[in-house]
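Deliverable D2.4 — example input (structure tokens):
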């Protein structure tokens, strides 16, 4: 695989990860709100903070590569 093809594959994977994290940032507050126990609610809220940190790390990687994150939207989330 050529270096350019490898970078393209790497960026696609990063975009997929960024998209997944972005979807979680949107969905986790709803999950926390719907939680029936305080432990579950706290778990969702804790995961939300970790997910936000993951997004910052991914954005830093994109910046280091001179790229912008442009993750794909999951088909299931487009209909919401």
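Example output (designed residues):
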């Amino acid at each position: 695989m050529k270096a350019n093809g490898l970078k393209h594959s790497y960026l696609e994977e990063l975009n997929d990860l960024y998209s997944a994290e972005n979807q979680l940032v949107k969905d986790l507050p709803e999950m926390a709100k719907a939680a029936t126990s305080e432990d579950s609610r706290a778990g969702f809220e804790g995961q939300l903070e970790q997910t936000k940190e993951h997004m910052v790390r991914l954005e830093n990687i994109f910046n280091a590569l001179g790229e912008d994150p442009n993750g794909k939207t999951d088909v299931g989330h487009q209909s919401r």
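The domain at 13-71 is CATH 1.20.5 (Single alpha-helices involved in coiled-coils or other helix-helix interfaces).
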